[in-house]
Specification:
Elements: E1 3-13, E2 26-34, E3 44-49, E4 54-59, E5 65-71, E6 75-81, E7 85-86, E8 88-94, E9 100-102, E10 105-109, E11 117-118, E12 135-139, H1 140-145, E13 163-165, E14 191-193, E15 202-205, E16 208-209, E17 211-212, E18 217-218, E19 227-233, E20 248-253, E21 261-270, H2 278-283, E22 291-302, E23 307-319, E24 321-329, E25 348-349, E26 360-369, E27 372-386, E28 389-402, E29 417-435, E30 438-455, E31 462-466, E32 482-486, E33 493-510, E34 513-530, E35 537-540, H3 543-548, E36 553-555, E37 561-580, E38 583-594, E39 603-611, E40 619-629
Parallel strand pairs: 2-9, 2-10, 8-11, 15-20, 31-35
Antiparallel strand pairs: 1-40, 2-5, 3-4, 3-6, 6-8, 7-10, 12-19, 13-14, 15-16, 17-18, 19-20, 21-22, 22-23, 23-27, 24-26, 25-26, 27-28, 28-29, 29-30, 30-33, 31-32, 33-34, 34-37, 35-36, 37-38, 38-39, 39-40
Length: 631
């Protein structure tokens, strides 16, 4: 395991929104008093999630304090009651994941009629003084309102502070479809958090693993319409989180509601909105055809009593083209057929160096369809077994077939290379409230990932012919490089990954202490298959050597594959101690072990504080330190 130590001191002044300091749940706490400021012990506090009518109830302690932990994010109504007093209701309380909200209530005698109190967003605290970690959250309203051409939910991260592009990024560069453009290295990932490398990030969906560890990217990306929140933590000083020394990103899926709701959408663009490439303009060719169709729907509502569902479907089709512009021999080979030239008037004798043979070559120009099709499905069912027990089942499926990586140029149609990426996952999350002080959350997931390489030439060998164009270097008709024909498998590989994950977190509140105990277990089986040169590769120094059947080199790979198994274990204990109303101390210990490394010395202590010296809550000093281990 890779180890890193991180110490951070952060000062927040006058922020605009309540920042999410954790990833998964919400905590609502406060004090209940009477009109004279005396505490009211034994008062009943009930929180109702308006969307699903899910209720949680607790009572105030001897000091009039209450705390509701492990709540699902959403809009709540808080009802406070006590015999002899008129009940009070706080409505329209919008919460986001990780928020620690303090709501005090004042009860008046029962003979005084009190209208419900409405808490608006403007009345929420400016900053969260009860958390020691830093980050941000994009709600569903923001994800729907922010314009984003790619419709990639992870691209929304770039609107948040501390998020940058991956190293050696080719993102948003001008693209010439007539050549194989440069790509960002696969290991670079897709984004960096707080300056850490992409492989140090931990990506999750509903708190469960969503990593493609080989490529430092996500395993599955749900539709933008299926995401309720995008949560980012740029440091993670809680011992609850491991497997990464950098930041953490969690996507929370939408759930159904007690009312039927749905939407349908369709987006379209074509080449009329694009500029032509420099190469096409130099050849007098028009823009290549391009059409981008994105459509889908969401639908949710009740199934039976205490059960709701949500389904999201999105299909993206890109009808793109690439231009093949190369030289081919005028004569045909008796062994390996190539397409005939498209312009014999420009035939010329190739400029081959001895001892290579020289023959007549001529231009071959043709367009080829290189479509992309991506399907994303998310389905979720939530069920409430009782007032203290609820669960959710989520299914995710992604199917990607991408031929847009084929740049044309000197590659013939049969050398087209494509990429497939199939992903499936099913998860179960269960929350059980033993008492107002003890809550247990269990999660289970089975996922599989199959990124594959496709060569459309079948099992035919690869033929590489060096182009020796006699035209001068300043002639725009000159073509150089290597003609690629046959089943090109250069850089090809297949992977099959299966993961079983089990999490359990037990939360216990004891006075000013909030304790957590938990474990995170993963079993991963990964198969890697090297497809490079699987069908054999012939190299020819000239087109003349190709027609004569005289290769300069031949190589072949006999399908080497490897299988790796890894069992990851992570256990932790963590405590948050509210020493004073303005001072929170957070400390814990995490231990991690992976069988593939057999490194047992992986203890990671964590320590952090949050101090609010001003009573207004407009200033918070946060400090944290810890030892972290990358997966």
């Amino acid at each position: 395991m890779m180890t890193s130590r991180l110490t951070l001191l952060t000062i927040f002044l006058f922020t605009c929104n309540v920042n999410a300091q954790d990833l998964d749940t919400v905590t609502i706490s406060g004090r209940v008093m009477d009109q004279n400021g005396a505490v009211v012990p034994g008062a009943e506090v009930q929180a109702t999630l308006i969307k699903t009518r899910l209720r949680r109830t607790t009572t105030t302690d001897a000091e009039g304090r209450y705390r509701l932990i492990q709540l699902e994010p959403g809009v709540y109504a808080i009802h406070v009651s006590f015999p002899g007093f008129a009940s009070q209701e706080l409505t329209n309380i919008a919460t986001v994941s990780g928020q620690s909200l303090n709501l005090d209530a004042t009860l008046l005698p029962s003979d005084i009629v009190v209208e419900p109190v409405v808490i608006s967003d403007a009345a929420s605290p400016i900053i969260d003084t009860k958390r020691t970690v830093t980050g941000a959250t994009l709600t569903s309203r923001e994800t729907e309102s922010l314009p984003i051409a790619s419709r990639s939910v992870l691209d929304l991260l770039f609107t948040l502070p501390g998020v940058t592009e991956e190293p050696l990024s080719t993102r948003d560069l001008a693209e010439d479809r007539n050549a194989n453009h440069a790509n960002t290295p696969e290991e670079a990932g897709t984004f960096s958090l707080a300056g850490a490398p992409a492989y140090s990030n931990n990506l999750t969906i509903d708190g469960l693993d969503n990593n493609d560890d080989r490529a430092a990217r996500e395993r599955f990306q749900p539709s933008l319409e299926a995401v309720s929140e995008v949560q980012v933590i740029t440091n993670q000083f809680s011992a609850e989180y491991g497997r990464a020394s950098g930041g953490r990103v969690n996507l929370r899926t939408r759930s159904g509601s007690k009312d039927f709701q749905g939407r349908a959408f369709y987006y379209f663009r074509d080449e009329a909105l694009n500029a032509n490439t420099f190469k096409n303009n130099s050849l007098g060719l028009p823009r290549l055809p391009l059409q981008d169709h994105t459509g889908g729907f969401t639908f949710g509502g009740p199934i039976i009593k205490d059960t709701v569902f949500f389904v999201s479907y999105e299909l993206n089709k890109v009808l793109d083209s690439a231009l093949i512009d190369t030289l081919v021999p005028v004569k045909e080979s008796a062994v390996f057929r190539l397409p005939a030239p498209t312009d014999l008037s420009r035939a010329r004798l190739e400029d081959a160096d001895d001892p290579a043979l020289a023959v007549q070559v001529a231009p071959f120009i043709s367009s080829i369809s290189t479509p992309l099709e991506n399907t994303s499905i998310t389905a979720r069912i939530d069920h409430q077994f009782g007032p203290m027990h609820n669960a959710a089942v989520v299914y995710q499926a992604g199917r990607l077939v991408n031929l847009r990586g084929f740049g044309g140029g000197n590659r013939l149609a049969e050398a087209l290379q494509g990429r497939r990426r199939d992903s499936d996952a099913v998860s179960y999350s269960d929350t059980f409230v033993f008492s107002e002080r003890l809550v247990n959350q269990t999660r289970f997931q089975y996922s599989q990932l199959a990124p594959a390489f496709e060569a459309r030439g079948g099992n035919t060998p690869v033929v590489l012919i060096t182009l020796n164009d006699p035209l001068p270097s300043d002639d725009p008709e000159r073509r150089t490089g290597t003609l690629v024909a046959g089943s090109s498998t250069s850089g090809g590989s297949d992977r099959r990954e299966q993961r079983v994950q089990l999490q359990n977190v037990l939360s216990f509140v004891d006075g000013d202490h909030s304790l957590k105990f938990g474990a995170d277990l993963h079993h991963v089986r990964s198969i890697f298959i090297d497809l490079a040169d699987l069908s054999g590769t012939f190299n020819f120094a000239s087109a003349g050597d190709f027609l004569a059947g005289v290769p300069s080199r031949f190589r072949q790979n006999f399908q080497s594959s490897s299988t790796q198994k890894n069992f990851y274990t992570g256990v932790f204990v963590h405590d948050e101690w509210q020493i004073r109303p303005q001072l929170l101390l957070s400390y814990g210990l995490r231990y991690e072990y992976e069988t593939i490394l057999r490194d047992a010395n992986n203890f990671g202590p964590r320590f952090s504080i949050a101090y609010s010296p001003l009573g207004s809550g407009k200033l918070v000093l946060r400090f944290g330190s810890g030892i972290f281990f990358n997966r």
